[in-house]
Write a structure and sequence with these properties.
single chain, alpha+beta, Spermidine Synthase, Chain: A, domain 2, 2 helices, globular
Length: 80
């Protein structure tokens, strides 16, 4: 795939890969390694949804019911 580059921000050829960071009219800043798109400013929201704090708080709020050894009536909500 070919992109029209507005401005090359950084480019380096290492012994392992060709790295290019540039600006694109539609995608914003783009990072490419060896000609393959890695990430763009336009799709950055996808990575932030993974770190949604509401998902973490829902997970941490879960409680399990555990019974202490030998006492069936001693079951109480607590983290296991």
């Amino acid at each position: 795939m070919t992109f029209a580059v507005d401005k090359v921000l950084y480019e380096q050829q290492t012994e392992h890969q060709h790295l290019v960071l540039f600006e694109h009219k539609h995608f914003g800043k783009m990072l490419m390694l060896d000609g393959a798109t890695q990430v763009t400013t336009r799709d950055e929201f996808i990575y932030h949804e993974i770190d949604d704090p509401r998902a973490h708080s829902r997970h941490m709020a879960r409680r399990a019911t555990c019974s202490s050894s030998g006492a069936a009536t001693a079951a109480s909500p607590r983290r296991c």
